[in-house]
Amino acid sequence: MNTTAKNIFDAVKGKKGQLGICVTYLVDASMNKTANPYYGRVKKLTTVSNARLGVSYVNCVNGKLERSGQTPNYQAGKSTTDFVNDFIQVSKDGSKFYLKVGINSRTTIDSVYYLDGHIATDQEVADIKNYLKKSAPSQRQMAAGIGEDDVYRHITPNVENILHIWQGGETLYDRSQPQRQAVAV
Question: Rounded to an integer, what distance in angstroms lies between the CA atom of residue 185 and that of residue 40?
Fold first, then answer.
């Protein structure tokens, strides 16, 4: 693991499966390139509240199936990353590390868009959204019997983009203070 991935892992390893975790990260907005006047100009600051860290995707899906009275026999498809541990994934070439953030029906995701370094206006956001890549719920989970609104998913921000992780009033990781983080763990 690289230093950032290790610092994040050390900060959250005792929080496996707990609710109430919040993660904030900043990324280039995932946008379509074709005829997009905003491409390369938009950043997205996202806060995921009530996330779950360190949980198994397959176990979560099978738990949902079991609770709904169905056979818990879901198996995940092929992954584009490998697991370092329950929290961290690594790209196949070993060059990038990602935090596995679990999203369920109790999770909220709030994003702020920045255009050319300033917070985008409501009108700019409305226009930007026309160029954002769309994501769909897992067709495999829905085929297994899970409703669209109850699909479980993970998001995997690159650890280098994570700014802050906290739970309640406790800061678990703060990128701006790496020495403090190392001492607090």
Answer: 36
pLDDT of residue 2: 93
Beta-carbon contacts of 95 under 8 Å, excluding residues fewer than 6 positions away, are: none
Closest CA to 137 of 125, 146, 126: 146
Which has the closest alpha carbon to 51: 26, 23, 12? 23
Instruction: Please write down the long-range contacts of 68-76, taking CB distance under 8 Å and 24 or more positions apart.
Output: 68/145, 68/146, 70/144, 70/145, 73/144, 74/140, 74/141, 74/144
**CB atoms < 10 A from the CB of 156, how many?**
16
Domain-by-domain residue ranges, the chain?
3-174
Residue with tokens 């929290």: 87
Q: Provide the whole-model pTM.
A: 0.84
**Burial class of residue 119 (count of CB atoms within 10 Å of its CB; 0-12, 13-18, 19+):** exposed
